[in-house]
Amino acid sequence: MRHVSQLRALSAVAVLLVIPVYGDREAGSAGTTVTAPATAANARVGALFDGGLDGDHFCTASVVHSAGHDVIVTAAHCLDDRGDAVFVPGYRDGQAPYGTWPVKDTYTDDAWQEDQSEDDDVAFAVLGPGSLTGAQVEDVVGAARLTVNAPADGRVTVVGYPGDADTPQSCTTRSTPFGDTQQRVECPGYPGGTSGSPWAAADGSVVGVIGGYEEGGDDPDVSYSVRFGGTVGALYQLVTDQKASCVSGRQGNSPSRGAAFG
C-alpha cells in the first residue's frame, strides 16, 4: 500500500510479503529512478497535502484536461475521507512555485464507493481557484490528455512524490499486464506518497496512476495501476461535463481502443 498514513500505521515488526507469481520481478526489466527535472510537463504533476504546505504531503496527482480547466486525476484511496486536501503542482524543495489549489469535489466509481474495488482505484477531483491569482490550475500549468484502452505493455514515464521527499522522482520503463484489469511497472524507490502518480505514455497522455493492486503495491520497487478502460473513460466524461454530483463510471459506452480525451 502506498498511502503514507497507512504505511506509518504499520508495525515495525518485519512481515513476510507474499507476492503472486505473476507479480514477481523480471530480470533486466527495471527502470532507473532519478530526480524529475523541472519541466513544463512535470509542472502538471503535484503533491497532495493535508490542509496546506504546513501539513504533510500524502499522495501524488496530476492535471488532466477538462472544460472547466480544474480537474486532477489520482488514486481513489488517496482522497477517501480527505476533506481539506490541497494540490500543489510542481512542488519542489518545500516551495509551491505556482501556488496551491483546494480540492472541492471528488469523484469515484460506485464500485469503489461500495467495495473499495482494486479495479476501480481511480479518482478525479475538481479544484477551486489557485491561491496566487485565483486562476484555474490548467490555465497556469497546462494539462495532459487522458487516454483509455491503451496497450498495457507500452513505454511509460512515472512521476511521483515519495512521502519523505520534497522533490519528485521519475522513472521511464515498460509497463506489463497484471492480470486482465491491471498493469505494473518496475521502478525502484516508489514508496508511500507516490500513490496517484501519473503514468505518461510517449505522447504525454496519462494512461494510468499508481494504485489498484494493494493500493499500488506492497513493494516500493514494483508499482501497479488500474488499466484505464471504459469505466474510467465514462467517469472522466461525467466529471468534466459537471453534470452530476454523484457519479457512477458504469454509465455510458466504452471508448474505442486508444481513445484520448482533450
UniProtKB/TrEMBL annotation:
<dbReference type="InterPro" id="IPR050966">
    <property type="entry name" value="Glutamyl_endopeptidase"/>
</dbReference>
<dbReference type="InterPro" id="IPR043504">
    <property type="entry name" value="Peptidase_S1_PA_chymotrypsin"/>
</dbReference>
<protein>
    <submittedName>
        <fullName>Trypsin-like serine peptidase</fullName>
        <ecNumber>3.4.21.-</ecNumber>
    </submittedName>
</protein>
<dbReference type="InterPro" id="IPR018114">
    <property type="entry name" value="TRYPSIN_HIS"/>
</dbReference>
<dbReference type="GO" id="GO:0016787">
    <property type="term" value="F:hydrolase activity"/>
</dbReference>
<dbReference type="Pfam" id="PF13365">
    <property type="entry name" value="Trypsin_2"/>
</dbReference>
<keyword id="KW-0732">Signal</keyword>
<keyword id="KW-0378">Hydrolase</keyword>
<dbReference type="InterPro" id="IPR009003">
    <property type="entry name" value="Peptidase_S1_PA"/>
</dbReference>
